[in-house]
Amino acid sequence: MKLFYMPGACSLAPHIVANEAGIDLELVKVDGASKTTEAKQDYLATNPNGYVPALVLDDGETLTEATVVMQYLADRKPDSGLIPASGEMNRYRVQQWLNFVATELHKGFSPLFRPNTPEETRTINKEQLTKRVKFLDTRLADRSYLMGDVFSVADAYLWTVLGWAKHVGLDLSGFANVQRFLGTVAARPAVQKSLREEGLA
What we know:
This protein is α+β, with helices and mostly antiparallel strands and 201 residues long. Helices cover 48% and strands 9% of the residues.
């Protein structure tokens, strides 16, 4: 399988999931500006939307959207514990967290990376993100990860997205439980391996 990624983008989350599950992927780096790979292949031919991740399966099928790619990879190795089995309530709890990160955090960060985003919009987005991080800080008060003591695909996604805060001037220092979570996830061997493979460590 091939994972198309941009270093530090949301594609880092499925990269982490693959390493946590012990799944070997061929990593294909994409340039966000030119939409080409390091081999000068047109990435738009793989994903016409131009963003990452894209996972090309061995049979040629392509999956996009970080939350879908993470679940697919985790389901390949159910013993990894990265996502509960289909039909279990905790499966829906993990999916609930994935959707929270995607809609309440990921989409809030995105405009902050665009140079043409109006300052008023930046302020509003940062205020909203801070509210959501406060909620997370409360939920993480008595647990190591979103689902308790078990690391899941949702944690890989949350850690990746919150890692963008330092690049856009969003201060997370006042949230002790979130800080603890970030440190705990960062220390995981699979996370460190993923960062090295993307040239981020």
